[in-house]
Amino acid sequence: MYSRSSSRKVLDGPPSISDFTIEGGTELTIGNTYPITITLSPSSDLADCFYAFDTETQHTFSDDAASKSQCTELLGISDKTEYTAKLQASGSAGSFNLFIQVVDREGRDNVRSKGVTLLLPLPTLSILEHPISYFKHGDPVTLPVSTNWNQNDKEQYSLKFVKQQHPPSEIDGYINEATYDQQNDQYTITAPNSIDSDDKNPIYIALIKTGSDEIISPQKIENIFYCIEPKILSFKDSNQNDDYQYFAEQTVSLEFEAKIFDDDATIAQPQYQIEEDNAVDIILEKKGSKYTFTYTTKENIPKDENIKITLTLTDKAGQSVSKEVVIHLRTSPHIYGPTFNSDKSEYSTGDVIVLVIKFENFDSREGKFMYRFNKDDFKELDDSKVTTLSKFRNILADPVSYQLSIPSPENIQEGENTLEVKLAQGNDQPESNVVSQKITFVKAANPEPVDPTPEKPIPTPSPKGGLSGGQIAGIVFGVLLGIVIIVLIVYFVFCKKSQEKSSEELEESGSGVEV
């Protein structure tokens, strides 16, 4: 006789929560997620887990989603006697009972509760995108900050800051307080009233709750620069002779030293202004601690005078600084109005270019005329090629006019060329300004060799409104021929009358002779 045993699966009993714990304690910040550990006795095969916050001592978990929230990441450990899961604190701040409901795979459930406190999350600061900004002393600075108060009372917090190289390690390191604009929900600070050196350090900010030592949401703001107050330390003409006088179109070299943001005046919108004229942008050259630039005097200086040159710098914060220097100008010959004195529109090798130049500020020139083509070296024009037109037309003419006969260059450049003319310094007269005239050169189809000997001089084109040498010779010849003809006519008339008179006298003498 024997006994037969049968085996069958024994179901676990209904779940029973003996305890549950929350990682971090019972003070929960709304919006945060917290791990929980659920202990069962006896073990149970859980299928789900739910939770709810309620001020009441009892809570009914219904199928209504509003009555519960589902735990996440439910995981059984220790032979189904312990489970872990996660829940998120939600609702409003205050004291609540946290109810945990577990459900096994048979649909049986169990609920257990524990008292918790829901806290509002701390306010947060975030930095907005912003360009590099430059400020001068005393400027208001709006911080590029966005604030999320998370239902906290704004008045319980202050934003404190410090501008330095490294972040503060303690709350006392935030030594300045920003001003809160409630209407626009923004914070502003003020640049120091005196800035002795450039400040490119970042700004460290944090929210500080009244009565608390906690540094809340510390942040770092970069690219807010404080600019030193600019100064031009010296500004002078680089010519050390204070009595030096500049003539027309002469280059003046000016130099200065400056104390300015980034120690770079080249980016400080440098400009100069002559007396009350419009300001002119300039390009500076830096040589060590000095900056240099040039200015060209005007082309017409009719009298000795002093002019004021004002230098202005404007830094990136909009701070401007100016300084003046005075230079002396000397009366200079002024030439102008170069015009062609011939009908030619094109020239080739061997041609003579005849120009009329007007001259003023002196009774007559003392220096030699100089010319050049296309920025070559200036050449002296022989005085034999210069004619003072006003002496023959009107001795009191003002200004004086000079006719220049300028030879074409041996190696011409076909097309448009630039001819420049000036008067060199002579005796008490300084150098004049430079005038220019466009010249068109073409290559002659059959150029004849030019004989520069006295026997065959270079022909001079006829001036506008004047006569060529051949025309004048023809007129002279015609006049002489006319005079000769008149003399001959007078001679023949005189001879005829003389013959008639002689005949009459013979007739009278013959009538008294007897035959």
TrEMBL record:
<feature type="transmembrane region" description="Helical">
    <location>
        <begin position="472"/>
        <end position="494"/>
    </location>
</feature>
<keyword id="KW-1133">Transmembrane helix</keyword>
<feature type="region of interest" description="Disordered">
    <location>
        <begin position="445"/>
        <end position="465"/>
    </location>
</feature>
<feature type="compositionally biased region" description="Pro residues">
    <location>
        <begin position="449"/>
        <end position="462"/>
    </location>
</feature>
<protein>
    <submittedName>
        <fullName>P270 surface immunogen-like</fullName>
    </submittedName>
</protein>
<keyword id="KW-0472">Membrane</keyword>
<keyword id="KW-0812">Transmembrane</keyword>
